[in-house]
């Protein structure tokens, strides 16, 4: 490894110095960034704001665009800072996907809606 350079390996970028690797980032394929409210909330087209799904708990909240908490208003971050805590482990709704679709499961927990149904929770 050369010292003081940045190099690419597959989907990863690393920076090195005389002391070794300074840090790195790995690129991963996104799952919901092209959907309104990341397909994890309802979009008000009047206000342009998202109302993020909170059921099943812990639900979702605004992200920084990288899956961490932030101010984008996009429901792109799993909300692990509420009463119930923990990671997302199911699709949205008391009845998964409102009973009008199926859940893809881990890691994206995306609802695939039946014909005639839409939105992130297949409720419309």
UniProtKB/TrEMBL annotation:
Q: Which residues form a coiled coil?
A: none
Please, which domain of life does this record's source organism belong to?
Eukaryota
Which InterPro entries does the record cross-reference, listed alphabetically? Answer: EGF (IPR000742)
Transmembrane stretches in the record are none
Q: Which residues form the EGF-like domain?
A: 87-123
Q: Does the keyword Transmembrane apply?
A: no
What are the entry keywords?
Answer: Disulfide bond, EGF-like domain
Q: Which cysteines are joined by disulfide bonds?
A: 113-122
Keyword Disulfide bond belongs to the record: yes
Name by which UniProt lists this protein: EGF-like domain-containing protein
* Organism annotation: Phytophthora nicotianae P10297
């Amino acid at each position: 490894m050369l010292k003081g350079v940045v190099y690419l390996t597959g989907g990863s970028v690393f920076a090195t110095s005389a002391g070794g690797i300074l840090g790195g980032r790995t690129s991963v394929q996104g799952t919901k960034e092209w959907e309104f409210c990341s397909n994890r909330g309802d979009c008000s087209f009047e206000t342009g704001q998202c109302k993020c799904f909170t059921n099943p708990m812990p639900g979702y909240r605004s992200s920084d665009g990288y899956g961490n908490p932030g101010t984008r208003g996009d429901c792109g971050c799993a909300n692990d800072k509420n009463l119930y805590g923990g990671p997302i482990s199911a699709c949205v709704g008391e009845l998964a996907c409102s009973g009008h679709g199926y859940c893809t499961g881990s890691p994206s927990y995306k609802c695939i809606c039946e014909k005639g149904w839409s939105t992130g929770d297949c409720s419309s």
